[in-house]
Write a structure and sequence with these properties.
This is Lipocalin/cytosolic fatty-acid binding domain-containing protein. By secondary structure, the chain is mainly beta. The protein has two helices and ten strands; from the N terminus they run βααβββββββββ. α1 runs antiparallel to α2. The radius of gyration is 14 Å and the shape is globular.
Length: 138
Amino acid sequence: MAPIDLDGTWKLVKNENLDAFLKAMGLNFAVRKMAAAATPVLEITQKGDVFKVISKGVKTHESNYTVGQEFTDKNPLNEKETSTYSPVWDGDKLRIDNKSNPEAIHVVRELIDGQLVQTQTIGSGDKAVVSKRIFAKK
């Protein structure tokens, strides 16, 4: 049994440190401003440990995975590039680690006060840049 239920449609309500995170990804000023102005929606279908996540924003991206099983997915910024990810439960958090590139983006999703908090980290150690995206259920 999954420790949390993320099923539903979630709309972005707040970003924290997004510009620094996007800058660490190598995105230019114009793209960063466009991303900051967007209000993406996550459509999450969860059946236990099986997930279908559709992210609708500047681009639409769909991921399908099962917690505990590595999966390959396209890089949303470069459709020609793929990475292998490992989704695991970390207590009551869903952690998705990039196994292909430890310096790439890692995501943690959790529920805090009824909101979906998505913490994104790029890099590691002293060079890690962390951003939070907070979503409310529609």
